[in-house]
Amino acid sequence: MINKLLNSNQKYSKYFKNTAWLLVEKGLRVIDAFFIGIWVARYLGPEQFGVLSYAQSFVFLFTALAALGLDQIVIKELVKNKSNKDVLLGTTLGLRLIGFFIMFSLLLITLNIMDNSKIINTMVLIIGVSIFFQSFNGIDFFFQSKVLSKYVVFTNSIVVAISAILKITLVLTGSDLIYFAYVLIVETFLTAIGFIYFYRRNSYSIRKWRFSLSTAVGLLKKSWPLIIGSIAIVLYMKIDQIMIKEIIDEKAVGIYAVAVKLTSIWLFVTVAITQTVFPKLVEIRKNNRALFLTKLQLLYNLLIKIAIVVSILYTLFAKYFVTMLFGMEYYESIPIVIIYIWSIVFVFFNNASWSYYINENLEKFASFRLVIGATINIILNVYFIEYFGLTGAAYATLISYSISGYFINALFNKTRDNFILQTKSLVNIFNLETWRKPL
Questions:
Q1: Where are the chain's structural domains?
Q2: How many CB atoms lie within 10 A of CB 394?
Q3: Whole-angstrom Cα distance, residue 76 to residue 199?
Q4: Whole-model pTM?
Q5: pLDDT in tens, 10-33
Q6: What whole-number distance in Å separates Cα of residue 148 and Cα of residue 354?
Q7: Alpha-carbon gap, residue 282 to 272, rounded angstroms
């Protein structure tokens, strides 16, 4: 299906190979999440694992400010303006560094206001520092635009292996919780070094990068709706864990985080596929909107089938997954997993939708519907966690994701085509022909 999704001519192999590279990397991350991440969760126990998850979630709330919504915008510009890459990459680096310092300053201010324990504040600051090295992710965007993700995969695979070794060592030596936060700094630092190495190895020079104020202004004019959207994304991805800690306690965060961990490993699949096909969809949309919609339909068909199959399997076997992998300490996570897993249907819809919104110049709408989703999520969490506990937080996530990722598209003329594509992909679940061969 990916073959036909990308292209029917000789060029398709480049995109297919790129997807294969990304899936290899995501597979390694799944292994790390399943075996190393589960081992860490069992070693720390629900309470300490909850502290680690809370600290990561807290920092994640601020990462949108550091990223500045530039990811897909820069990739799109690199595809359209190949000769301007040094200015684009230099400006992206400058903007991301500015974004980091704004983020870290707000992080410090917020920590001073909140009544967290010393260990939580320390871990938040350590994890916050790791975001600095993500400023070099512009190189990742460049390789994505060239459909050369193998270099990103090489880098990330090596980093995942080193990180796994470090975490195994920490577990075997009975290390304190704080050292698991330091591992995140090592990961982002080594990733930046790897990106720089492969960029130079391909005969490109960072010394040629130039920051352009006019380019920066142009990028920010296009990305500011995505900044708002990104803030909304991190809010309704992580606000539940923050609110669980404030309403219940750290142990409850650990119980809930297990459901999130078991679910989030599948998000790597949709990221790998959508990142690979995005540059090609940009090219197709420039010349043929009808063909663009056809290819996007194929993308939806593929992703929704993966999401539905995974959700059914988790629903049937959640009890065994949780108890065998994490132990009886996390038994309370089982009903949360059964509810939370169905949210990936709408997360897959959401990730594929970015190709529609950006290519149709609907960045403002994309951010608007995420703000709506985040607002609904927060409101529901306030009441649902109080009355239904951790399963309430899972229901809040499922409902808000379905609204922002799917139903809201039906309400506006400019997004109704996208809603139709999504709905057809749901209908095609019952069409055996779409399972047997591509549309």
A1: 2-436
A2: 26
A3: 19
A4: 0.72
A5: 454 555 555 566 666 666 666 776
A6: 21
A7: 17
